[in-house]
Amino acid sequence: MRPFLTLAFLALATPALAEDNPLQPSATWDDLRESVVGLTAEPPVDPAVFDLTAPIRANDAALVPIHITQPAGGAAITDLTVVIDENPAPVAAEYSFGPALMPLDFEVRMRVNAYSDVRGIATTEGGDTVMAGRFVKASGGCSAPAGKDMAAVAETMGQMRWKSVAEEGRTIGTLMIRHPNFSGLQRDQVTLLNIPAHFIDKLEVRQGEELLFTMSAGISVSEDPVFRFGYEPNGQPISVHVEDTEGQVWDQVFDAAG
């Protein structure tokens, strides 16, 4: 396995710190809740349904691990919106989940631009809305320099890797997609000019015809995003469909075993 893949898999194989950094009172959230997220009332926080963990202080503000988990027997979650209150575009990503991912054990890396609450707002199969989150100390994640030069970006964009392993009685899939996910706030380190926003905005992952998950995203998902998730395999190949804001499309099918 290439070094960059090894590092990426290890980064998400390490659980996000579940320390005591609960959501903090947020005037920004008070403004966002209805006007941006469309919620007229504050959703309840209920760890019996799900939890969102993230580190108290990020080691890298451009690669903050966000980990969504559910206890066994929890209500199935059909949709989840990740909101990072203080990011320039607070709605970081919207997910839909298939039954094979229940109970959720789902991890992704996000950019965090300033000290902020990072919250997940979930909809259960019964139609209930529930929230979970953590307060994360990080800054500059959306403007952090890209990890490679523009020539390397052009050469590798759209490449994917898939890995599937048995772990503690469950199958864990890890999907990596090569894409710079430029936020529009970064500078080319050679020209010092701003790099236009260019990011993955649609992702769909299936096993055979069965949906695993979809993502509709903005600028907050990290460069070269990695998704790590538990799922119930059905033995069918894993198909991945990716679209970005420049109209580029990539499709790839992997053997289920990875």
From TrEMBL:
NCBIfam families: fuse_rel_SoxYZ. Residues 47-142 form the Ig-like SoxY domain. Residues 1-18 form the signal peptide. Keywords: Signal. InterPro entries: Fuse-rel_SoxYZ, Ig-like_fold, Ig_E-set, SoxY, SoxY_sf, SoxZ_dom. Residues 169-252 form the Sulphur oxidation protein SoxZ domain. It comes from Paracoccus zhejiangensis. This is Quinoprotein dehydrogenase-associated SoxYZ-like carrier. SUPFAM superfamilies: E set domains.
